[in-house]
Amino acid sequence: MPVVAAFVMPGLPHMVLKPDAPAWQRLGKAATAAGAALAAYRPDTVAIYSTQWIAVLDQLWQTKPRLSGVHVDENWYEWGDLPFDITIDVALAEACVAAGTKSGLRSKGVNYEGFPIDTGAIVAAHFLDPGHRQPTIVTANNVYHDWAKTEQIGGIVRAMADEQNKRVAVVGVGGLSASMFRRPIDPAEDHIANPHDDEANRKILTALESGDADRVRAEAAAAAGAGPTDFGLKHLAFVLGALGGKPGKATVHGYEPIYGTGGAVVEVPA
Amino acid sequence: MSQGEILAGFLAPHPPHLVYAENPAQNEPRAEGGWEQLRWAYERARKSLDRLKPDVLLVHSPHWMTNVGHHFLGVRHLSGKSVDPIFPNLFRYNFELEVDLELAEACCSTARDMGLVTQMMRNPNFRVDYGTITTLHMMRPQWDIPIVGLSANNSPYYLNTKEGLEEMDILGKATRKAIEETGRRAVLLASNTLCHYHFHEEPDVPEDMSREHPQNYPGYKWDMRMIDLLRRGKTREVFEILPQFIDEAFAEVKSGAFTWMFSAMGYPEIPGELHGYGTVIGTGNAVMEWDLTAAAA
After folding, report:
1. Is B59 helix (H, G, I), strand (E, B) or coil?
2. In degrees to the nearest 10, what's the CA dihedral of A207, A208, A209, A212?
3. Cβ neighbourhood burial of B87 (10 Å; 0-12, 13-18, 19+)
4. pLDDT tens, position by position, A197-229
5. Residue of A185, A141, A173 lying closest to A31 (CA atoms)
6. Domain count of chain A?
7. Residue B132: how many other CB atoms lie within 10 Å
8. Phi and psi dihedrals of B72, rounded to 5?
9. Rg of chain B taking only CA atoms, in angstroms
10. Could you tell me the pTM of the whole model?
C-alpha cells in the first residue's frame, strides 16, 4: 500500500493567521484533527499538491532538501507572516521528476534559495507537520494541465512511492467554490458567497464520503462548470490519481466559508 | 506647492529574461545575451527617462494580484531577494527600493474616495513581485528614483473584462488626481505584455534566439495592429477594440496596467514612440512611450 491515505485541505491562510474568527477557528481545529489523523497513518513521506503554486512551463517539484524562511501572503499580509520549515524527501521528488518526464509530462526539480513557497503548501505543513520533521514532497499546479493530467501526476506519486517502498500520505491543497467577497467583511459574519456554491460544495463532499471516484469527478466537473472553483478543483484529481482511482469513504473533518469561498478538511482513506 | 503632473507613460513589459540577459550585478544567473532588440528598446526608454527627470515612478504590475481591492506598497524601504516562481533559473534578483509613501497614500485614499476598495501594504517582510522589479530595473537600473507600486486587482478576471477595466479607469483617474495634489512630477509604467500566448517548453539554452519567435501568427498580427494604432495616436480606436484584442490575443493588458496608465494620462490622442518590439518565449512585448510634456509643448 504505497499511498496510505489522502487529505484535502484549504490553502488560504485565514485559519492560521486569523484563528479568532469563528468559522476559521473551526476549520483550524478540523485541520489540527487531520494532522493527528495523518500521523496515525505513519507515513514516510507526505506529498502535497497545491493549487496556489502556479506553474506554466513544466510540472515542477521542490528538490531543495530544506525549505525554510518567512512567507508573506500577497493578499493577507496585514494579518502577519507565515514562517515555514519543510524537509523535502529529495529522493522521492527526483524520482517523480524523472518518471513524469519519462511519461511525457515534462517535469523539473526546483532547488533555489529564496524560491517563493506558496501559501497553500505552508498552511498545509503548518497543520500536518507542526514538528517540522515529516519528509515531504511538494508539486505545482501547472495551469495548462487538465483534470486527467493532474490525476496522472497523482499516479506518478503513487508509482514512485511503490518503487521506493514508502508509505505516502497525499494532500490536495485547495479550496472548493472560489467566489470570494470583493469588499472587506467582518470575519465573524463570513459565509459561503451564494447558495449555489454551498450546494455544489456539499455535493462534492457527499461524493467524497461515498468513496465513488466517478461521482467525485462528476460533481467536481459540474461545480467547475457552474461557477468559480479553485482551479477546477484539480487538487481532487491529484488525490484520486494518487489513490489509484479507488478512494475509500471519506471523513469530512470540517467545511466552512473562507471569505465567501468554500474550504473543507477531508480525510480519504486508501 | 505647485500642481503635480504626469510627464510621460511607458508601456514597459516585465519578462525576467531581459534582466537575465543583461547580467546585472543584482541578478544571480549569468547569460550569454539574448533578446537584444528589446533590451536596446529599453536603453532608449532609459534615455528618455533621464531627460524627463521625474520625482517618482509609478508601476502597476499583474504579478501582484489582489482579490479584495487595489493595494499599494506602503513601506518606505523594501529589500530582499525576488525569485521568479515561473523562471527561477533566470531571475533571482536582490532588490532594494524606496517608496514615495506620501504619494502612495494619496493614491490609496483618493481611489477610495472615488469608490474603489483600496489598501496600503504595511508588512515590512513583503516580497515585491518580479513584474514590478523587472519593469523598474529595465527602466531605471540605478534604482535612484522613489516608486509607487500598485497591485492588479483581479476584477477583469473575476468579474469580466469590461467591469474590471472600468475599475482600472477609476484607479487611473485617482492616480492622476493624487499626483496633481501632491505636486509630483511623475512617470507611469504599465507593466504589460501584449499578445500573451507563449511556448510551453523552454530551450535548454534560454537565450538561444534561434528558438525565439511569435508563438502564433494571429497574435503577432494583433500586436502589429495595436502598435500601429498607438503609433498614430488612435487611442480611442485602441480602446474600442481592446476587449477583442484581449480575447483573441490572450493579451496581458487585461490585467489593467495599460488602461490605468491611459486613464491617468487622460487617453491622449498623441502618437506613441515605439522604442522596440520583440518576443519572449513567444509573447509579444513592446516598449513604448507617450511623452506628455513634448505633446504639450
Report:
1. strand
2. 70
3. buried
4. 999 999 999 999 999 999 999 999 999 999 999
5. A173
6. 1
7. 27
8. -130, 135
9. 18
10. 0.95
**Cell match 495592429: residue?**
B225
Neighbours of B120 (CB within 10 A): 16
Q: Which chain A residues have a beta carbon less than 8 Å from that of B200? A: 56-57, 144
For the segment A37-71, what is each residue's pLDDT rounded down to a tens digit?
Answer: 999 999 999 999 999 999 999 999 999 999 999 99
Output the nine-digit C-alpha cell for B186: 511623475
CB contact under 8 A, A72 and B125: yes
Give Rg (Cα) of chain A: 17
| Best mutation target, B118, B125, B163, B193, to test chain A (most A CBs within 10 A) | B125
Taking CB atoms and an 8 Å cutoff, what residues of chain A touch B117?
A: 182-184
Residues 205-224 of A with CB under 8 A from B: none
Instruction: Give the pairing of strands A135-142 and B56-66.
Output: unpaired
Whose CA is closest to A107, among A139, A136, A135?
A139
B83 vs A57, A116, A184: nearest CB: A116
Q: Which residues form the domain of A99? A: 3-269
What would the grid cell of residue A175 be? 479550496
ipTM attached to this prediction = 0.92
Angle at B131 between CA B253 and CA A122, to 5 degrees: 115
DSSP character string of chain A: --EEEEEEE---THHHH-TTSHHHHHHHHHHHHHHHHHHHT--SEEEEEEEEEEESSSEEEE--SEEEEEE--SSSGGG--EEEEEEE-HHHHHHHHHHHHHTT--EEEE--TT----HHHHHHHHHH-TTS-SEEEEEEEETT--HHHHHHHHHHHHHHHHHTT--EEEEEE--SB----SS---GGG---S-HHHHHHHHHHHHHHHHT-HHHHHHHHHHHHHHS-BSGGGHHHHHHHHHTTT-----EEEEEEEETTEEEEEEEEE-
Do A55 and B83 count as a contact with CB atoms less than 8 A apart? Answer: no
Write out the H or E segment, with its range, that includes residue B243: helix B235-249
Of B153, B231, B145, nearest to B187 by C-alpha is: B145
For residue A80, which phi and psi values (nearest 5 degrees)?
A: 120, -175
Cell of B194: 501584449
C-alpha cell at position B191: 507593466
CATH number at residue A137: 3.40.830.10
Out of A55, A57, A116, the one facing B127 most closely (by C-beta) is: A116
Distance of CA A264 to the CA centre of its chain: 10
CA distance A132 to B108: 40
C-alpha–C-alpha distance, residues A263 and A251, integer Å: 14
CB atoms inside a 10 Å sphere around CB B267: 15
What mean pLDDT comes out for the span B57-72? 96
